Amino acid sequence: MRNLIFFMHTSLDGFVAGLNGEMNWITLDEAMFDFVGTMTDKADTALYGRVTYDMMQAYWPKAGEKPNASKHDKEHSAWYNKVSKIVLSKTLSEKGLNNTTVISDHLADNINKIKNQAGKNILIFGSPRASHSLLSEGLIDEFWLFVNPILLGKGMPLFKNVTEITKLKFIESKTFACGVIALHYQTKRN
Hints:
By secondary structure, the chain is of the alpha/beta class. It is about 30% helix and about 30% strand. The protein contains five helices and ten strands. The mean pLDDT is about 90.
């Protein structure tokens, strides 16, 4: 069975974006890009909510071809272009999309079907609203939370409308020189 692994930047006080979706507070460095590259090497599918998918589609397909493309831009662009993409959306149509599946209903059934197919891990980057839906259905197997050294005070919460207790097992942590601490948890299944 394939694992659905959730990657998210969060503020120390538990917000993933400002009130208007701002993410300019996120701290990144080359070591973090390299680390995420080791995770994408173990995945052949990316899952997004529609808003994040639109943002990714606007940048990643051609990011590696730009004259000033960084090593990370080249590597992630190549990965993005080859992996299967899943988008959770009630408004997006698959028509004209390349290597992309749109899931608009029966979330648990559709995601579990994909998780039971042969393949590598499924990664979900960001996509807080989609992640809230996946979490409420118990579909996330692992969490990588990148805790940024900042307090936002208000914004979009990391976890929203959690109605059932979800027990997690701590796996490891990784500290980056930029001050971000990555926390890795696995969902405990009863």
